[in-house]
Amino acid sequence: MTADWLINYNHGFISRGLIGTFLINSFNHQESMLDFLSFLLIAIYILIFYFITKIFNQSKQNFISLILIFSPATFLFNIYDSQGSFRKEILGILALVILASNIKDKKSYKIYLSGVIYTIAIFSHSVNLFFLTTLIFILFYKIESKNLSHYLFFIGPTFLNILFYFIFSNSEQDLYRKRNLMCEDLENFGLSNLCGYGSFEFLVWDFNAAYLITQNIIINENRNSSYFYIFLFLLSMIPFLFDKVFFKKFQYYFFIGISFIPLFLIGYDWGRWIYIVLICFLVVYLISEKDLINNNILFIFLFYPFVFRIEHCCKPLVHFQENFVLNNLEYLLSIFMSILQN
Fold it and tell me: Containing H/E element for 196?
């Protein structure tokens, strides 16, 4: 995912450019820049897991909490499909878990820190804008902040990001020009192999183009996989159904869920979008009142982390093959064993 992190503003404002602007202008050598980026991304993941642990420990949890953390739609998603990991939504996730960890502490500095990271996130990738509803929900219903500045610290950058998009909106020709100039900069770093595919190709799509391309894929090219992603989303929601309190708070999850609908319409990385939605649901669940689950039903979930996987994009495995669950289990075990051996 290195290419996406190196998109920058050096040749004019463009979506996804903030982090890349810092990297390109702070380093003179390929090795030092890539080393720093690697350490940065690993540090972000470590901080996410730290704050998730803090959130888990500060409230009463049940077995469903553990199932949701180790769901194929949340943190196992990154392992089952490595191409869905190390993407810029980890910045939005970090902002979210920092804010959620403040439920008990209610310290202003954590709110402002979350706001700063959220600002960096949305100017680094527009996907992070969709964390706003969950952030505001936590701030209003869980932290119960009455301080207007707390809300403006999130809403203000969101407004500026949208405003900049319309002010600096580019023609297709200009988008191609900026992309090609960025590719020339990467060539000077000896990283020309990062251009020509992936994130740099998507830079030349505006929202209208992204919408039309996505709808064409859904309607004409791959309708069955679209239905299957809906099935995978419903499968991801099953653990919630075993908690009676979830139904009492359903309106909160529904409000957060529908705020992501535009994301599904303008981009076909549906697996990633499901992952982001479920991360938001997970965080809200961890900090909310929950039911104590009957131990007699716990065995139902023992194999839940292995019964499905969500691919980040395009062509999911529509038919469950023979020994599918066993293959998933063996795959996860091999991954964790390789980590221990290293």
Answer: none
> How far, in Å, CA of 309 to CA of 315, rounded?
12
Tell me the C-alpha to C-alpha distance, in Å, between residue 316 and each of 228, 229, 274. 8, 8, 13
CA distance 36 to 2: 12
SS3 for 162? helix
227-260 pLDDT per residue, tens = 889 999 999 999 999 898 999 999 999 999 999 9
Q: Is 125 helix (H, G, I), strand (E, B) or coil?
A: coil
Asked if 111 contacts 155 with a C-beta cutoff of 8 angstroms, the reply is no
Helices (H), 168-249: 172-188, 199-202, 207-216, 223-236, 244-248
Query: At which residue do the structure tokens 């996860």 appear?
Result: 332
Q: How far apart are CA 146 and CA 338, in angstroms?
A: 48
Determine the angle formed by the axes of helices 18-26 and 30-58, rounding to 10 degrees.
140
Q: What is the pLDDT of residue 320?
A: 61
Residue 319 pLDDT > 60: no
Q: With CA atoms as reference, report the closest residue to 199 among 127, 262, 109, 307.
A: 127
3-state secondary structure at position 29: coil
Closest by CA position to 275, among listed 124, 12, 4, 83:
83
Half-sphere exposure of 234 (CA within 13 A, CB side): 6
Among 236, 300, 230, smallest CA distance to 71 is for 236
Dihedral angle over CA of 101, 105, 109, 112, nearest 10 = 50
Q: What is the tens place of the pLDDT at every residue in 45-77?
A: 999 999 999 999 998 999 899 999 999 999 999
Instruction: Give me the chain's average pLDDT, please.
Output: 89
